[in-house]
Specification:
alpha/beta; 6 strands; six-stranded mixed sheet; 175 residues; single chain
Length: 175
């Protein structure tokens, strides 16, 4: 009986696909983030869904405003581009439990292939004068069929990205 319960628990634990959201940031330490006060958008790689793209731009606008940057299309300090890609992936899930060659009896087992969509979102900031990239945030997570879940994941990723935006830290130390 104990072996049966252990087998059921093992199956349940191995069949769930859990793909954690990954967020990475990179920035140029020599970039003058404290001097950046304005930004403008440039073309990137749009999300497959136009509504998702609009939500992304609105969310990035809010994060940039939170960092003290204002939209200025005529003379920006920073140029912003976003890139969104999706890729269908497969993962082999072992869902079996068995006994070794010297154990008693047999077991049950097998494997299934789970298909999921992985989405990657990139936010790039370029110095408008030098045209050099000064900051990049990359987030990767499993996409959902539900737009609200994807919006929640996007906002969570952007929050993580902009927690590490160097502008606020530089601006507050100068007082």
């Amino acid at each position: 009986m104990k072996n049966t319960i252990a087998a059921v628990v093992a199956v349940l634990m191995t069949t769930a696909i859990v793909h954690a959201q990954k967020v990475n940031i990179d920035s140029d330490p020599a970039a003058p983030f404290a001097t950046y006060k304005t930004y403008a958008w440039t073309a990137g790689t749009p999300a497959p869904n136009a509504l998702s793209e609009q939500r992304l731009h609105t969310a990035v606008d809010a994060r940039l405003a939170g960092e003290g940057l204002a939209m200025n299309t005529t003379a920006p300090d920073v140029i912003v581009a976003t890139h969104v890609t999706t890729k269908e992936k497969q993962e082999l899930i072992a869902n079996g439990f068995g006994y070794g060659p010297w154990g008693f009896g047999g077991g049950f087992g097998g494997a299934t292939v789970e298909t999921f969509v992985e989405g990657t979102m990139i936010v790039d900031l370029y110095d408008a004068k030098t045209k050099k990239m000064v900051w990049r945030g990359i987030a990767t997570a499993t996409a959902s069929d539900k737009p609200t879940k994807n919006t929640d994941k996007m906002n969570k990723a952007l929050d993580k990205m902009f927690e590490k935006y160097p502008g606020a830290a530089v601006a507050t130390t100068g007082n």
